[in-house]
Each structure stands twice: as structure tokens, then as C-alpha cells.
Amino acid sequence: MPMTQPIGIPGFSGAVEPVPELMSLDIFDTLLLRRVDTPADAFDIVGRRAVERNIIDEGVTPSLFRLVRQSAEQAARSKAQATRASTEVGLADIYAEASLGDPAALARIELEVERELVFANPLLLPWLEELARRGMRVVLLSDMYLSHAELTDLLLAAGIHGGLYAALYVSSGHGCSKRDGGLFHKLIADHPDILPDRILHMGDDPIADLAMPAGLGLRALHYVPVPRHAALQERERLVAGLARPAALPTRRLAALALREAGPDMSFWTEFGALVLGPAVAEYCRWVVEDCRRRGIGVIAPLMREAVLFAPLMEDWIRLRGYDMTVVPLHVSRQALAPLEFADFGADKARALLQSRPHLAWDSLMALAGIAIPAGYGSLTGYRMDDLAGAAMPDGRPALDAVLALFDAPENRQQAARRAAEVRRLAHAYLEDRLGSAGRVALVDLGARGTTPEAIAGLFQDGRSRFHTYLCYAVPDVAGPLRRGLPVSVYCADTALGMVLGRVLYRTPQILERALTGLHGTTLGYEDRDGTVLPLLGSPPARGDEAVALAAVQAGIRLYGTAAGGAPPALGEAALFPLAAALLMPTAEEAEALGSLGYDYNDGTDRERIICDAAAVKGVSGLAGPSPLPLMSMAMGTRPMTVPWPQGALTLGDPAVFSRVAEAVALEVGHGTVCRALVTEARRRGIRRIAIAAVGGDGGMGPEFIRTAAAAGLELTSYADLMEHLAPAPRFHGVPVTGLDRLAEIDADAVVLVTLGYADKLAELVRRGGGRSVRLVALGRPDLDGVSP
Fold first, then answer.
1. In the Cβ-directed half-sphere of 66, how many Cα atoms lie within 13 Å?
2. Do 101 and 126 share a structural domain?
């Protein structure tokens, strides 16, 4: 019985009307996701295992194996075209062409790797199960070299059993594909009782899953993330250079979930979901997994970050079915600062004032519980550098006079009493929260581990009882490690991870403000009738900033929810989006994030705007066309003066970082040129384009069509200088016409998808006459613009 109730689709707002009688789903990058960025990345793993098992020679490195595997597939498809008039092949055909080792053994390894890499899309799997309960007929379609049986096993390994779909169509078995329309013709023929427009197909490929089914009368939904996802990936490619950033399929899920929220999604929510979400949520998931591996049953994230950390951890614990508890602790560096005063004196005061250059000497005395004597009022608010250049009324150096106060016996005694009282209260508070828990994970953001070390110091068995987790770290973390405190750092597995952590440490304000701006810090503790409670300050963010941060935090939670049961990402992959945003912000990011405030959380109530006038002035000497090492010089500015130098520079020149990176982009191939052309078209406000290209499938045309369609451009027609390589009626789903007819096509512009044939293409397009035509060519300002 046909289903009559409206259906909603994760990633699309609103219900699908009219209700389809048959759902058709693409498999890879729709229903199944991989833990790697591209399918070819899996070949590296296959090659490595083949060497380890002595199936191929050890001289065939993973990169070489990838090349051979890709070449063998092309050769197998060419042979199939010549012998069977079809390019569809199976895994056995491919490895027969590779000639590296036992084809059957290599095929088994690739299937083994695929089983390990794929997982069910956690957004779609529950929805698919609901469709099955409601009686909706569902079929799966895939352009794939795996056989029907191999793909069925792969789906089953990911939790997608045969009860969730009625049929599976695989191009390798049918000798035709979605891309050439054959699988859709087969689907229609197998369901004569259903009109094509009552079949709804959904998939990610703009040609195979959108243009082709739509051209055959089926309804089609393009299952792709919000446009910002592609823009972020492009920036990360520029930052990474030749080293492609690690895969982050869980961010794709968040970008798809954002689509469901509708077109009015704010910048702040998207930034939270796609940039901050990976760093925060994946760090929390990693902590849980590492605690389970170590047998730690209690996870104690420190406030204020715990407001976000705790629910993300609890969600993952519940999803995985672990026997673990999350106990947020109201602890801060400010609340525990008096513990340092047990053996206070001038030397320690000097060291603290030097390490915290924004801390005033009188604030330090207040933290130690020391009263400021008469005659020092004129120095109130002075920091270390202020004191160094000042003098007392009697001519004594102000710095010497102030430091002498810390050495006074009565002041040292008062500081010691203050430290003892804070120790008593903090210990009682923590004992009440943690009870008899055995090993406890203390979870902080970064970067030195001093606050967790102070907590451990409150307990006799603290160094064996507590294990510290940090998201990022700096060399100072060596201190707690040397003193016997166990510390694990999320992004410390590789040198690149440590570099990314250093970027976050140099510009932590955005991350910290997003996590802590809506909640007051822990100022200390008080004893209320035998119960010790934390004293909390007021939330620092107010008004519009509070609204913005609430949207950021909602985005972070959206990422965590969308990730669902997807595997946790590696540290480098999760931190790369945030590091790239900090290093190369867009104009929108610089303006929005630079307007946030931040507090120092160190005993002062000092706040400032991240990119205030002082910050912009502080980088003014770096701006301009000078060929200086701009990024290094920006990162070398004083954090006190310029907290986020990239943001401040971008406010003055929105393209200051991306311009150089794009000009010297190290990525080799058609992709860079195609993305640059799409970016240029979008920059000019062009949305409907005609394409003039060269070389058919061997040229840039196919890559440009995919890139432009993914960016949301409407492709009206395609013309090729070598007409025989792109015969009518359609080329990769785009209607084919002659070059001399492009001037007559209804489009905003004609994009010349070439580097070496721009003059020839422009001449042929203009020769067609008709209305004036706007040309877009890369690196050819003489051709750009409106041509008669």
C-alpha cells in the first residue's frame, strides 16, 4: 500500500510533496561515507598492506601503488569499451591490468580496507529505517566497480541490511551507469506501475544524481552540503599546499544538517558547526575513547568549557554504551591562583608579573590577600613594564619598592594564610564532587596544564589519581610532565599537529570566547553551613555578542549531533578548519570574529576587543605590497597588542593572505584552475553560465562541470573546440551546442575553461554574432568583460 504521509529528508527543510512512490538512493558519499577524503586515498592503505604481506615489492610505495591502481582501472575500462561496448568493469578486471602481484589477493585487501573505511551516514540511517517501518519502497543505485555481492556485504558491514531496501542496482553488474542514464532506464523499466515523476532519486553527484535522472523525468534531490563547506575546503587546500588536509567526513554531515535548518542560517551558527565544531566535538570524543582505553571511569571537564564539553561527552558515552560518568568542575586558574602564595615573596611576585604582563601588581596583592599600604595609590593598576619606568615620591624605583612589599614578613604570612584557606575550600569542593571515584580525567582546553596540576596538588595521591587532557599544548607543558603529572594532548601525535596547536595557542581568544563567553568564571569558593560552593562571576558577553555566541555554541552542538555514530576524527583533521580560519580569515570572519571581546581569566577583570583600534594599528606596518614573510611577521607581533594579527590585517585588506596563497597554489591539476574560474564567476555575480572548453573528457570540461555544479552555478550549455570529443545532445549532463552558437544562449556569461586556447575560443564565440556576450577567462583581463 503506497505511503501517503509526507516525508522529510535529513538535510532538506520541509516535507517532500507529493509523496513519492519509490525512493532511489545513491550509495557512496550519500548513504555510505568513508573515513578518507577521496576513494583514491584508500588505495594508499591497500598498497601499504600489500607490501606488509609480501604480495607486492617493497619498492612500490603507497603513492606509486595509487598511481598503478588508478591507471589499471582506466586500462580495464578502455578494454571493456573495446570488447563489450561498455566501460563498466569489476575489481578483478582492474587488478588483472595492474600486474603487480596476485590479483585475487589484492582485490581481497581492497575489500578489507573498504569495510574498515565505510560507515553508514548517521543522518540517513535512522531515516532509512523509518521509511522501512512506514512501507516506503527504497532502491539503491551505485556507479561502482564492486560486484552486487561485494557491495551488499559492504552495506551489511555498515549496518544497512537487506530489509531496508528492495533492490540494489550496481553499474558493474548491469553494464550501464547512472552517469550514462542506463541504470535509471533499468529502474523505470523494472517499475512499470510507477510513473517516473513519482520516483525520487537523491545523491551527491551533480551529473549522475541530478542532471541525468531529472532529464529522464524523475524527481531529483542534490544531496550536497551548504556552499560554505566547499569554500572552507578550498581555503584549507590553499593553507595545506601540496599536503592535502586529512579527511573530515563528519563535517560534511554537519554541513548537510545545516541545510535542513533553512536558508536563514546565520554566519555564527555555520562557523560553530563547520569550523569550531570539529575542534571541540572531536576533542571531546577523543577524550572519552582514550579514557576508556586507560580504564578511567570519571571524566571531569573544567568550567567554563565544561558547559559544552560535558554534553558532547555524555552523548558519545551514551551512544557507545560506555560505563562512564562526566562530572563538571567549577575550577579556574583565577580561583586556584592563591595556592601559589604559600611561599610567597619578591622573587615569586616578579616571576608572576613577568609571565602575566597584563596583570597589575595591586591585583596580584589582592589575590594573595595582602592589603595595599598607604602611599602606593598612585601606582594602582601598574603592570610590570609600567613599574619598571616609574619612581616613588621619595625617588626609589617603583618596581623595587613594590617587590619589597611582597617580601615583608607580615605580608608573606598573610599570603600563606590565604593559600591555606583556598586549599581547604578547594579540596572540600572537589572531594564533594568526585567522592570516592578512582582515576579521574581532568579535561582542560590548553596549553600548559597548570590548572590540572594545581588540582592534583590538592590530593596526596593526585599524581596517580588524575590524568590530564589538553586540546593543544606548548613547551611549558613539559613542566607538569617532568613533575610526574600524566598529560595527554589531542594534537600531539605528529609534528603537524603540534604546529596546529601552536597556531591555536598564538590566537586562543576566539576559541575561548566561543566556549566561555556566556558563563562567568569561578572566582573562588565559600563555605555555606558546611557545604563548599563555587563563587561565580558574571558572564562577560552581553547584548549582540551574547546572541552571536549562543548561535556559535548551537552550531558546535549541531556538529556533535550530526556526527552521531561517525568515527572520531584525528587531531590534525579536526583542528585544521580552525587553524586555517585563524591563519587566513575571510573578510566576513575578520569583521565578525574580530568584534568579539575576551577576558584574561587571571585575576583581573580586564577585557578588550580582539581586533580593536590598537590591534589594527599594531599591524599597520606590515600591510602593503612588500614581499615580506607576512605570515611569520604577523604571528610574531605581541599578543598583548595584536591578539589576532591575521584578522587585523584582513580588516584593512580582505585578500591580504588569500591573494598570495592562490597565486602560488601548489596543487597540481585541473581542480585549482576550475575552482579559480568558479570563484571568479561568483565574484562577478554570475549565476547562469555557458561553457567553452577544449578536449572533451581529456580536458578540463568534466572537472569544471562538477566544480561549477557543486558551487550552485546553473550550466546552460557546453561547446568544445574539438567537437567530435563532445557529441550532442549532452556532455556530462550539460546540453551541447556549437561554439558559434554560444552567443545566442541565454546565460549571464560564457566561461572559457582553458589556459592555452583562450584566444581561439574567444574568437569563435564572438564570431557567432547575436547579442553581446560576457566572457570569463582566467588570467586574461584582455578577454574579460563584455565583448561586442
1. 11
2. no
Which amino acid is it at 644?
W
The residue among 116, 134, 157 that closes a domain is 116
Contacts of 661 (CB under 8 A, 6+ apart): 238, 239, 584
Note whether residue 732 is domain-resident: yes
Are 92 and 130 found together in one domain? no
Per-residue pLDDT tens digits for 139-185: 999 999 999 999 999 999 999 999 999 999 999 999 999 988 999 99
Structural domains of the chain, count: 4
The answer to whether residue 559 sits within a structural domain is no
Per-residue burial over 625-648, b = 16 or more CB atoms within 10 Å of its CB, e = otherwise = eeeeebbeebbebebeebbbbbbb
Alpha helix positions (H), 8-167:
39-52, 62-84, 91-98, 103-117, 125-133, 148-157
**Range with lowest mean pLDDT among 107-111, 188-192, 225-229:** 225-229
What's the average model confidence in pLDDT over 49-73? 90
Same domain, yes or no, for 72 and 153?
Answer: no
Q: Assess whether 780 and 675 both reside in one domain.
A: yes
DSSP code at position 376: -
Coil, helix or strand at residue 415: helix
In a shared domain, residues 50 and 157: no
Does residue 211 belong to any structural domain of this protein? yes
Q: Which residues, in sequence order, are CB contacts of 499 under 8 Å at separation 6+?
A: none
Measured distance CA(598)–CA(608) in Å, rounded: 6
Closest C-alpha among 13, 98, 11, 101 to residue 54? 101
- For residues 769 and 758, give the distance between their C-alpha atoms in angstroms, rounded to a whole number: 18
Quote the pLDDT of residue 787.
37
Q: Which long-range contacts (CB under 8 A, 24 or more apart) does 723-728 make?
A: 725/695, 725/696, 725/697, 725/698, 725/699, 726/696, 726/701
Strands (E), 209-301: 219-222, 298-301
736 by DSSP, 3-state: which?
A: strand
Contact (Cβ atoms closer than 8 angstroms) between residue 429 and residue 530: no
Instruction: Report pLDDT digits (tens) over 557-595.
Output: 999 988 877 888 777 888 889 988 998 898 899 999 999
Q: What range does the domain containing 698 cover?
A: 670-787
Q: Is the pLDDT of residue 786 over 50?
A: no
Same domain, 24 and 62: no
Give the model confidence (pLDDT) of 184-220 as tens digits.
999 999 999 999 999 999 998 877 888 889 889 999 9
> Are 53 and 179 within one domain?
no
Tell me, rounded to whole angstroms, the distance of Cα 767 from its chain centroid.
47
